[in-house]
Amino acid sequence: MFWENETDTHSSLMSKALSRVNKFEYILSHFHVADNMTLDTTKDKFAKVRPLFDHLNQKFIEHSICEEMHSIDEAMVPSFGRRSCKQFILGKPIRYGYKLWVGATRLGYINWFEPYQGASANISTKYAELVVGPSVVLEYSDILKQKWPGVQMHLLFDNFFSAIPLLELLSEKNFRGTGTIRENRISNNNLKDSGEIKKEPRGSYDYRKVVDNDIIVVISSSVCTEYL
């Protein structure tokens, strides 16, 4: 994309220093970071580039600055190649490509990323009993805690990741969390019915505190949110 003519992607620094056909594509065709003879792609579909990913994550967190607010979300890397890990997500600006889990600061600095390998592949065996969403958040929290032990940070995420058990585990790790949550993940509660509250004036809300936890679930006329 550095060699494209579009103003939002073209990089004169790169295109003038390195020709695309003669130099870049030649280097790319010979670029290897792992031994193909010893790869085990049954456990890691990104084994061929895993050393590069690990090195980048190490450098990202090494040079990161301590921030209170962090966001966990997905990011898409455009690709039309034939790979089993390639995703198609309808309605997204980038529909075809590789999906990455990304942990970033409030200013957009990436501290950590992990490529998505499928719904059945947890990123860490430590959280194998959890579904993918919460395990991604907890994996990122472990990385932050290792870098800044004792510092309380606030993680923000959307309804794909949110769950009451996730906030309980974050609280045990001395983290705070805020996120939207799906209605079927807050069953057995006394909150107003979502259909009823949508008919009320904008800004109307109802909330409940989770018993024995400092977790508040709020439902409003526009959104349902949980926070710790």
UniProtKB/TrEMBL annotation:
Residues 1-210 form the PiggyBac transposable element-derived protein domain. It comes from the Eukaryota. GO terms for molecular function: sequence-specific DNA binding. This is Transposase IS4.
